[in-house]
Amino acid sequence: MNSTNINIINKSLQKIFIILLFILCSLSAFSQEQNTTTENKKNPTSTPIKFEFKQKKDDSYSYISTVDEDVYVNNYLNHHSQIINRISSKVINAAADGEGFIFANYMTTDDSVTNWSGKHLMWGEETSSVFARKKTGELTIPDDIYMPTVRNVPVFPDRAIELGEKWTAEGKEVQDVRKAFKMNKALIFPFKANYQYVKDETKDNTVLNVITVDYNFSYTSTEEERISGSTLAKSTGFSKQILYWDNKKGILDHYTEQFQIKITDIYGTVYIFQGSANAEITEYKSLNNEASLQAIQNFVDELQLENISVKQSEKGLTISLDNIQFEPDSNVLLNSEKQKLQQIASILSKYSNDLLITGHCADRGTPAARQLLSEQRAESVATYLEKLGVRDEYHIFTQGKGSKEPVASNSTEEGRAKNRRVEITIMD
Question: What's the predicted TM-score (pTM) here?
C-alpha cells in the first residue's frame, strides 16, 4: 500500500478526542458491575457521587484535542503525526428527564501544528452531527454517521458511585477505512469499557473526579466482505484513558489517553497507529446574534477604528479588517495596522471563544500565489494577536481563501481594496 493510502488510513483513524465522547453515541444498553476496592476501605467517610451530564438549552462548549501518534508499517516507523481536533457543541434543546439534544461540529487539522512548523493551526476538514444524549451519557446517533470514532464513553450508572468503585459499560469503535481497504461501509464494532472512580483532584479551586477507563477491541473481516473485494483482514487495538470529570458542571474537564490500533490486510501487511492524546474544554458564550454584533460594533465605534466592519457569519461573529495594509507584496504588517490590532485585541480579550483568522486577496497574480499570500497574511495577524496575549497558539486557527470570496468588484481599486482583507471570527 502506498503512502497516499497510509495517509487515508491515518485520517480515518484520527482519535478525535474522547469527548467526542462528549458527543458520543450509543445504541446499546450498558451493563454495570460493582467492585469495592481497597481504596474504598481507606476512605470510609467519602460520600458517594452520582455522575451525570448536566445539559440545558444553549449550553456551548468547545474541546481542543492534541494527538501524537507514530505510524508503523510491518514494524518499521513510517512517519509521526501530530493532529489537532476542535469539537464545538451546543445544546439545542433539553428534556425534563435530563436528555439533551446536541449539535456538534468537528474540525481536524492537516498536521499543521505550531510545535513543528512554528505556524498556527491551519483550519482543516469539517463535519457535523446532531444527536441525543441521556444524562447517563448514552447517545443516540445513526450508524451511517462516522463521527465520533469512539462511542458511548463515558457512560455512568444511574446511581451514586463510591470512591474506588468499578463498573463496566458497552461502547463502540468506528473505523471509516472504506477507501483504503475497498469496503462498502465503515467498521462499527462493540467493546466493553472498564471504569473506576479512583480519586479527586483540585484544579483552580474546582474539584475534579478522576476516573480511569480502558478497553480492548477486535474485528475480523467476514467472508462476505472478502468476496465483495475488501482487502482488510483484521483490526485490533486498545485505549487507556484518564478522565477528569467536573460533576458540578456535569462535563468532562480534560482527559489523557494512550492508544494503539493495529490493522492487517489480506496480504499480511500490518499497519500500527499508536500514541497519546489529551484534550481540554473551553466554555464559551455564543456571540453570533444581533445583540453581540451591536455590542462589538459599539466598541469599534468608541475606538474610532476605520475600515472595520462586524457581521454575523456561519462560524460566529466576524470582525473584518478591510483594506488591511502590509508591506508591498508581502505578509509583513505595517505599524499602523499593528496599532489597529492592538485596539481590536482589547475587544477580543473580553471573550473566551476560539478565534479563526481568514486571509483574503484581490484578484491579482496567479491563483496559487493569491492562495499562499492569503494564508501568510492570516498567519501574520494570528502571530501578532498571540504576541499581544489574546489567545495561545492552540486557540487561534488560520485559513487562506485567496481571491475566491470577494466582497466587491475587482475591476476598481476601491473594490480591490475591500477584497484585500483579513477576517477575525469569534467562533461558536
Answer: 0.76
- Whole-angstrom Cα distance, residue 357 to residue 377? 9
Helices (H) and strands (E) in the chain, counts: 10, 18
Residues 25 and 108: beta-carbon distance below 8 Å: no
pLDDT given for residue 42 in this prediction: 44
pLDDT computed for residue 356 by the predictor: 92
Q: What span, in angstroms and rounded, lies between the C-alpha atoms of 150 and 127?
A: 15
* Dist CA 210 CA 382 (whole Å): 35
Report d(CA 296, CA 310) in Å as an integer. 7
Question: DSSP labels for 136-168?
Answer: TS-EE--TT---SSEES-S---SS-B-TT-EEE
Name the residue type at position 187.
L
Helix, strand, coil percent values for the chain (each to nearest 5)? 20, 40, 40
CB 168 within 8 A of CB 193: yes
Which residues of the chain, if any, have pLDDT below 50? 15-45, 112-117
Q: What is the pLDDT of residue 40?
A: 41
Q: What is the 3-state secondary structure (H, E, C) of 320-368?
A: EEECCCECCCCCCECHHHHHHHHHHHHHHCCCCCCEEEEECCCCCCCHH
Q: What is the 8-class DSSP label of residue 120? A: P
- The dihedrals phi and psi of 181, each to the nearest 5 degrees, come to -120, 20
User: What per-residue confidence (pLDDT) applies to 21?
Assistant: 42
pLDDT of residue 323: 82
**Cell digits of residue 75:** 514494524
Long-range contacts of 216-222 (CB under 8 A, 24+ apart): 216/191, 217/173, 217/189, 217/190, 217/191, 218/189, 219/173, 219/175, 219/187, 219/189
Say if CB 399 and CB 377 are below 8 A apart. no
CA–CA separation, 238 and 35 (whole Å) = 22
Show Cβ contacts of residue 144 under 8 Å, excluding neighbours closer than 6 positions: none
pLDDT for residue 88: 85
- Residue 135 CA to its chain's centroid (Å): 22
Report whether 386 contacts 321 (CB < 8 A): no
Residue 366 makes CB contacts below 8 A (sequence gap 6+) with: none
Report the phi/psi class of residue 118: left, alpha or beta, with left for phi > 0 and alpha for psi in -120 to 50.
left
Look at residue 29 in the predicted model and tell me its pLDDT: 30
Rounded Cα distance between 96 and 370, Å, is: 52
